[in-house]
Each structure stands twice: as structure tokens, then as C-alpha cells.
């Protein structure tokens, strides 16, 4: 049986199910909003439901041969593997449990590891199993994880997912892929990992894993995981989506805004930051709204205890500017809903990040998403 340290992933992000628009410009709050009506609302997070995950007791796992190290921080990426085993026609739960036992035995008895190397396993039937000791309870807690043995130096920073089968010339079955999307979305939510931080084993090791075909699907996987997070696990529902980040040539900022690539939670690097002030100096995200109507507006930022706890996001709604304050010390590395807004048709500065706040810490401008 193929050891997990022979897997692959990491294709550059591609176009998903919906078209993406990137770009942003900087204007003053008053100039872009054009109206004075202000409303304040609290942002809401879409929640991805927990998939069914079979714990180690369910598949009769052996205890680890010595204590598994628990990393008391969040992982910052997901690493995708394939088992390089036969593409079984048996998709039963019994087969999935047998697979988990076989992998653990191989890793402990042949590789000499203390336990299964990866944190989780998904069978061709779409059954998800906890692999390494303490992987499930730490995932549920969302603040720690067991140090793995699946991706070399990335073991201290990543969650490894082993997918049953060999995908050098064929794609994984729909049941496996759908389970992987759901599980990755849940994992990204729990650990605040951006979907852009889903990689293949071959990105970090000299290996064919997870197979050429599966590796080529990783950009789509990232998009599908982002969609699942967008809709709380239900996917998107509209026919328009514009994602606007701070890396394109359409983004301009005054000299008061700096750039940083420090945080792994960012949607785009570099992202922009600025000191709070009691004056108008907003970074604006520009988009082409195809028709007048109601749109969902979401924002993405990296979080840190030193960032601003009362950052104003200003939406240029058709009835007047509307402001939503967010705490950028939390909920980083995911889409956060700012609410639904009535928008006019046309190309204009739709969402701004204002520096005008009494909150403390840097305000961040990373990415926004507008969809119907």
C-alpha cells in the first residue's frame, strides 16, 4: 500500500463554476457613496454543517505506539493525497473501515510510524474516517491538531487527507469527490483556512501523488470548497458573482495604505492595511453590477488580535451608503456576510473599507464578493 508521503496537489487556482471579477480602486467615502444615509448591521457567517466522520473506535484502530504530538495552533493548509491502491468497486462502509485498518497497519508496521500518518481518510464510497489519533476532537475544537506524518516539513502546519484509489489516469468517483468538498469546507471553516490553501502532496515532495488527473482537479476543488463555504454547505444559488481583491491593477490606494503578505489567512497577497484615523481615506472595491437588484455582499480578511476591532465596510447601496462594522480580530480566512443590499446597475465603487473608526489596530482591505 502506498505510503501517504507519495501524494500530490497544488495546481494554481482556476476559474470555478461562476465567472470571477478581480479589481478595486480607492476613493473617499463621501465621493463614492454619494449619499448620507447610514445603517449599521452585524455581519453573519454562513455555517458549513459537520459531515459524518467515523471515529477511530468505529473502524477498530490500534492505539498509537507512542504519544502523538498535539500542535496547539491552527493548521494553515490542507494537503490532498491518494492511497495509490486499487480503484475498488466495493464502496461499502465495511470496505472503508478495512481500508483504514490496512493503511494504519502499513504506516506502523512497514513505515515504522507511531500511527496513521494522515489525519483523515475518505473512501471511494465517500465515507470519511478519522485516521491519526485525536484528529477528530481537535478538528471539532478548531484550535489544535495532531502532528502528522504525510507531507514532510508541512506536517507541523497541515491537515492531510488520504483519498482511496489511484488517480494518475482517471478521476475520483463522484461520491468521494463530493465528500471531499464537504469535508474540506468544514475543515476550512473550523480552522479558518482559506480554500486557496488546499494543496497536493506533490507541491511539497518529489512524488506523483495524488495522481495527474486528481492534481489537475485541485483548482476546481478550491472553487467548489469556496462555494460550499459561501452557501453554508449548500453551494451558490445565483448566476452572478464578482470577487474583487487587492492584487489587480484596478486596485489603487493612497500612500497611507501599506501592503503585507504576513498572514496565511489572506484571500490575496499582498493585502492592504492602514492605521485608523478620524477622516475619509477609504479603499474601494469596484465592480460591474449587471442589473439593479438585491445582492449579497461578503468580505474576507486575515484576522489577528492586533487588527482593528471595529472596521467600517461601506456599501454604496442604491438608497444611500450603508455601513457595517466588523471585528477583524476574528473570523479571518473565510467569507463573512455583510448582508443583502439593493445595488444600482453599472460599474462603480461598490464596497469600501474605511479608516474612519474609533477602534484600535490596523484596518484591512483584502477581498469582497458580490453575488445574487
Automatic annotation (TrEMBL):
The lineage of its organism: Bacteria, Bacillati, Actinomycetota, Actinomycetes, Micromonosporales. This is N-acetylmuramoyl-L-alanine amidase. It comes from Natronosporangium hydrolyticum. Signal peptide: none annotated. InterPro entries: Amidase/PGRP_sf, Amidase_domain, CBD-like_Golvesin-Xly, PGRP, PGRP_domain_met/bac, TAT_signal. One of its GO terms (biological process) is peptidoglycan catabolic process. Pfam families: Amidase_2 (PF01510), Golvesin_C (PF25275). Residues 63-211 form the N-acetylmuramoyl-L-alanine amidase domain. Residues 51-205 form the Peptidoglycan recognition protein family domain.
Amino acid at each position: 500500500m502506498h505510503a501517504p508521503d507519495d501524494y500530490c496537489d497544488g495546481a494554481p487556482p482556476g476559474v470555478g463554476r461562476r465567472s470571477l471579477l478581480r479589481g478595486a480602486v480607492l476613493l473617499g467615502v463621501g465621493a463614492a457613496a454619494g449619499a448620507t444615509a447610514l445603517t449599521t448591521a452585524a455581519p453573519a457567517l454562513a455555517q458549513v454543517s459537520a459531515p459524518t466522520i467515523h471515529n477511530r473506535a468505529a473502524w477498530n484502530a490500534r492505539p498509537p505506539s507512542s504519544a502523538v504530538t498535539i500542535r496547539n495552533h491552527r493548521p494553515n493548509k490542507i494537503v490532498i493525497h491518494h492511497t495509490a491502491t486499487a480503484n475498488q468497486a466495493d464502496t461499502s462502509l465495511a470496505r472503508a473501515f478495512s481500508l483504514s485498518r490496512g493503511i494504519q497497519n502499513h504506516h506502523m508496521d512497514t513505515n515504522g510510524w507511531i500511527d496513521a500518518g494522515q489525519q483523515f481518510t475518505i473512501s471511494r464510497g465517500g465515507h470519511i474516517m478519522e485516521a491519526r489519533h485525536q484528529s477528530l476532537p481537535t478538528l471539532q475544537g478548531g484550535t489544535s491538531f495532531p502532528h502528522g506524518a504525510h507531507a514532510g516539513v508541512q506536517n507541523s502546519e497541515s491537515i492531510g487527507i488520504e483519498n482511496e484509489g489511484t488517480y494518475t489516469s482517471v478521476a475520483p468517483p463522484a461520491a468521494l469527490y463530493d465528500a471531499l468538498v464537504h469535508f474540506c469546507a468544514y475543515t476550512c471553516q473550523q480552522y479558518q483556512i482559506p480554500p486557496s490553501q488546499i494543496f497536493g502532496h506533490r507541491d511539497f515532495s518529489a512524488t506523483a501523488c495524488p495522481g495527474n488527473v486528481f492534481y489537475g482537479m485541485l483548482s476546481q476543488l478550491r472553487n467548489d470548497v469556496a462555494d460550499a463555504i459561501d452557501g453554508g454547505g449548500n453551494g451558490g444559488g445565483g448566476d452572478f458573482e464578482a470577487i474583487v481583491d487587492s492584487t489587480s491593477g484596478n486596485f489603487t490606494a493612497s500612500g497611507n495604505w501599506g501592503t503585507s503578505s504576513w498572514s496565511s489567512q489572506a484571500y490575496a497577497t499582498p493585502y492592504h492595511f492602514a492605521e485608523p484615523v478620524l477622516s475619509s481615506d477609504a479603499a474601494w472595491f469596484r465592480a460591474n453590477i449587471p442589473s439593479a437588484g438585491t445582492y449579497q455582499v461578503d468580505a474576507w480578511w486575515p484576522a489577528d488580535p492586533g487588527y482593528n476591532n471595529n472596521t467600517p465596510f461601506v456599501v454604496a447601496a442604491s438608497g444611500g451608503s450603508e455601513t457595517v462594522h466588523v471585528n477583524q480580530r476574528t473570523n479571518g480566512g473565510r467569507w463573512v456576510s455583510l448582508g443583502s443590499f439593493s445595488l444600482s446597475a453599472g460599474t462603480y465603487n461598490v464596497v469600501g473599507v474605511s479608516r474612519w473608526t474609533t477602534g484600535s489596530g490596523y484596518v484591512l482591505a483584502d477581498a469582497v464578493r458580490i453575488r445574487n
